[in-house]
Design brief:
about 675 residues, single chain, four-stranded mixed β-sheet, 4 domains, Gyrase A, domain 2, binds zinc ion, alpha+beta
C-alpha cells in the first residue's frame, strides 16, 4: 500500500518525461480500410480462454522471432535480451477487423488522412512547428507485437508547449507523431504452464485486431523539479486537450502513458503502459523512491563491502534432494535437467532483503529478472529459513559456497539452461548494485508499482518506409484545420454545463469521463433529467466500483439500454444500482433478462393499488387509531414489497390518496 512518500523530489532531482499515446476515433485504420480497435473493445480485453479465442479469431499465423542486427552488425541489448530464447509468435485474426496488411502479406495503403488531420490539430493546439513534408518511418520492434518487425511512425511536428495546472505551468513539447498501434498481447495460458512446456522457447500470442489502429503520440520534455502531482496534472491536461477535439477514442486502454523517470542524474527508466491518470502519480512516486533507494544502497554497499563484489555460484541440487520446500522439490523432480543453483555474495547479509517504505528491495528486482527467464521466483538468504527450507539446508548451502555468517546467497531452481542463464543475469544485476540503477524498461502494475521487463533499448533505430509516399502539408490544409482547434478547457466546461443544465461539479468530471458519450446520447434521446443521468454515470458507478462491482465490464451500449428501459417505465429509478450490478455480473444478458434475474421490473398502477389496499387492511387497527399519522408505516410496508418496481414518488402519492379515502370511509 502507498503512503505519502517522505522524499524531497527537488533534492533528488526527479525528472519525468511523458509520452502519451492516444487512440483515434477514425473510420479506418492507419494503413488499410479495416475498422480501428475501439474503446469499447478495450474493456473486454480479459476474456481469453482458448475456445473463445478460436471463435473470435478463426485465422492464425505462426512466426518465429529472430533478432535483427543493425546494418553495422551490432545488436541492441534489448534485442539481444529478447533473443535469449527462441520466441514463437501466434497471431490471431478474423476477417472483420484485420486484412492482408496487418498480416504483412500486402503493402500498406496510403496513410489515413483523417488521422493525419487529428495529429495536425493537436500540433496547432500545442503551437508545435509543423513539417512541410511528413515522412513515414519504420521503427524496429523486438517483442513480436508487430507482424512486420517494425512500427510505422511519422513525426508531424516538433516543439511547442503544453499549458497545464490551470494555466500556471507549462512544459515543452518534444514531438507530435502519428503512428500505428501494436498488435494486442493475449495471455492464453498461465505463466507456469508455459515455463515447463518448453524452457528454451517462449510462445507469445497477439491478436491483430488492434494492429494498425491510429495513435497520436505526444512526447513532452522532462518535467524538471516536478512532483508526482505535477506530472499527473500535465498528463491530465494533455488528455483533456486531446479529448476536447472530439476526435479520439474513449474508454479503458484508449490512452496509454509511458514515463521516463530518473533521479540524481542517473539512468533513465522507461515505465510502459500506464493506463489511468490516478496511476501516474503512484507510479512516479514508487519509481522515484525505488531509484533513490538503489542509489542509497549503492553508497551503503560501497562503504560496507567495497566497489568490487565477490560473487560465486554453485550447483546445489544435491543438497535439496529430500527438501521439504514444495517449490524446490517440484522443480527438481521434473527431470535430471532441472537444477538448483546458488549465487553467493560476500559480506552481503541483510542487503538483499532490505527494503524502503514502498517495499522496493533488491530481492524483488532479482525475482523480476528471474521471471523473464521463465523461472517462477527466487529465494534469498535474508528470508531463510522459511518456505519449507530449513536452517540445516541454509547452512549446507553456505558450507558448499564456503560462506560465513555475514555473506548472502540467492537460490534459483528450474530447467538447467534457463536456470543457468538466470544465474548469469542475476550476477550481472548484483554487480550493478554499486552503480545505482541500471537502465531498464519496466512495466506499471495496477497497484502503481513497477516491475522489470527488459534492459532499456538504445536509441530507436529508424528506417524510411519506402512503401508510403511522403505527405505534403500545404498551408491551405492547416488553415482549414485551424477552425478545429479546441477551445480552452474552462470554456468547454462552461458551455457543456449550460447546454445540459449541469452544475460545474458534474459537468467537469463528466467531460473527463469515458462515459461522456453515454450521457450525451441519453440526454438527447430520453426524457430522463440530465442531472439524474449524470449522477448515475458518476456517483452510482463509482460507489458500485468501490463495492467491488466490475463496472469496466459494462459496455456503453448496456448502460444506454438501462437508461432507455428506465425511460420507458420498465423499472423504477430506485432499482438502477441493482440493475447495473446485475448487468456487470452477467454481461451477456439482455435488459429484460437482467431485470427478471434481479427480481425487478415495474408493476402496474392497478397492482400497486392492490398492494396499498392490502397493507391498509393488514394494519387496520393502527390506521383506525392513528389516522393520517399512520401513513409512514403504511408507506414502509408497501415499499418493502415494491422497491425497485415502482417509483417512490408514485408510491407515496398512491398511499396518500388511498389512505385518505379509507379514513374518510371509516369515519362516515
Ligand atoms: Zn486491414
Amino acid at each position: 500500500m502507498h503512503g505519502k512518500s517522505s522524499i524531497d523530489y527537488k533534492a533528488i532531482q526527479l525528472k519525468v518525461g511523458l509520452e502519451v499515446h492516444q487512440q483515434l476515433a477514425t473510420e479506418t485504420k492507419l494503413f488499410c480500410a479495416c475498422p480501428p480497435f475501439s474503446g469499447e473493445d478495450n474493456a473486454f480485453q480479459k476474456i481469453e480462454d482458448e475456445e473463445e479465442l478460436a471463435r473470435r479469431f478463426p485465422f492464425q499465423i505462426q512466426r518465429i522471432l529472430r533478432p535483427a542486427t543493425s546494418e553495422l552488425g551490432e545488436m541492441d541489448q534489448a534485442a539481444r535480451f529478447e533473443s535469449r530464447r527462441e520466441i514463437r509468435v501466434r497471431y490471431l485474426a478474423n476477417a472483420w477487423n484485420s486484412c492482408l496488411v496487418e498480416a504483412d502479406e500486402e503493402p500498406p495503403h496510403p496513410i489515413n488522412s483523417e488521422a493525419v488531420d487529428t495529429a495536425l490539430i493537436f500540433s496547432l493546439t500545442l503551437s508545435s512547428r509543423i513539417s512541410d513534408e511528413i515522412h513515414v518511418m519504420r521503427k524496429i520492434v523486438v517483442d513480436g507485437s508487430n507482424t512486420s518487425g517494425f512500427q510505422r511512425t511519422a513525426v508531424v511536428a516538433l516543439g511547442g508547449s503544453l499549458v497545464y495546472d490551470a494555466g500556471k505551468s507549462s512544459v515543452a513539447v518534444q514531438s507530435v507523431s502519428v503512428e500505428e498501434d501494436a498488435a494486442r498481447a493475449i495471455n492464453s495460458k498461465s505463466k507456469d504452464e508455459r515455463i515447463y512446456d518448453s524452457p528454451n522457447e517462449e510462445q507469445r500470442v497477439y491478436a491483430l485486431d488492434r494492429l494498425g489502429t491510429p495513435l497520436v503520440e505526444v512526447a513532452l520534455a522532462p518535467i524538471e523539479g516536478g512532483t508526482p502531482e505535477r506530472v499527473a496534472s500535465a498528463a491530465g491536461a494533455l488528455g483533456r486537450l486531446m479529448r476536447s477535439t472530439g476526435r479520439v477514442a474513449r474508454g479503458l486502454g484508449t490512452i496509454r502513458q509511458d514515463l521516463n523517470v530518473s533521479v540524481m542524474n542517473g539512468s533513465v527508466i522507461e515505465v510502459k503502459g500506464v493506463q489511468r491518470l490516478d496511476q501516474i502519480e503512484k507510479v512516479v512516486e514508487y519509481e522515484a523512491a525505488r531509484q533513490k533507494f538503489f542509489f542509497d544502497l549503492a553508497e551503503l554497499v560501497k562503504s560496507k563491502v567495497g566497489s568490487e563484489l565477490l560473487i560465486d555460484s554453485s550447483d546445489v541440487t544435491e543438497l535439496f534432494t529430500n527438501t521439504g520446500s514444495r517449490v524446490l522439490k517440484s522443480a527438481i523432480v521434473k527431470s535430471k535437467q532441472h537444477r538448483v543453483f546458488a549465487v553467493g555474495v560476500r559480506s552481503f547479509s541483510g542487503l538483499i532483503g532490505m527494503e524502503n517504505e514502498f517495499h522496493a528491495r533488491l530481492g524483488k528486482e532479482l525475482g523480476g529478472i528471474a521471471r523473464t527467464y521463465g523461472i517462477g521466483g527466487i529465494f534469498h538468504s535474508d528470508e531463510l529459513p522459511n518456505y519449507g527450507i530449513t536452517a540445516e539446508e541454509v547452512e549446507s548451502v553456505k558450507k558448499q559456497l564456503g560462506m560465513s555468517e555475514s555473506d548472502a546467497f540467492v537460490l534459483v531452481a528450474g530447467e538447467s539452461s534457463s536456470a543457468s542463464k538466470t544465474v548469469d543475469a542475476l550476477i550481472e544485476r548484483l554487480r550493478h548494485v554499486v552503480k545505482g540503477v541500471p537502465a531498464e524498461t519496466r512495466g506499471a502494475t495496477e497497484e502503481g508499482e513497477t516491475t522489470f521487463l527488459r534492459p532499456r533499448p538504445g536509441a530507436a533505430r529508424m528506417y524510411p518506409e519506402t512503401d508510403i509516399p511522403l505527405i505534403k502539408v500545404p498551408k491551405s490544409r492547416l488553415d482549414k484545420l485551424k477552425a478545429e482547434i479546441p477551445e480552452p478547457w474552462e470554456v468547454v466546461v462552461e458551455k457543456f454545463s449550460k447546454q445540459y443544465d449541469l452544475p460545474k461539479q458534474l459537468a467537469e468530471p463528466l467531460l473527463d469521463s469515458d462515459r461522456k458519450n453515454v450521457f450525451v446520447e441519453t440526454a438527447t434521446f430520453t426524457k430522463l433529467p440530465d442531472r439524474y443521468v449524470a449522477s448515475v454515470l458518476l456517483d452510482t458507478l463509482q460507489s458500485l466500483s468501490r463495492e467491488g462491482v466490475a463496472i469496466d465490464l459494462i459496455s456503453d451500449f448496456a448502460l444506454k439500454n438501462i437508461f432507455t428501459a428506465l425511460d420507458s417505465g420498465k423499472f423504477a429509478k430506485e432499482a438502477t444500482p441493482e440493475l447495473i450490478r446485475t448487468v456487470a455480473k452477467n454481461p451477456d444478458l439482455s435488459i429484460e433478462q437482467a431485470l427478471s434475474k434481479a427480481g425487478l421490473g415495474s408493476i402496474s398502477k392497478e397492482q400497486l393499488v392492490r398492494v396499498v389496499e392490502d397493507a391498509i387492511r393488514e394494519n387496520a387497527s393502527l390506521v383506525k387509531e392513528k389516522g393520517q399519522a399512520s401513513q409512514s408505516t403504511i408507506m414502509g410496508k408497501v415499499m418493502q414489497k415494491v422497491r425497485g418496481k415502482a417509483d417512490g414518488k408514485l408510491v407515496n402519492e398512491t398511499v396518500k390518496e388511498i389512505l385518505t379515502g379509507y379514513i374518510e370511509k371509516v369515519r362516515n
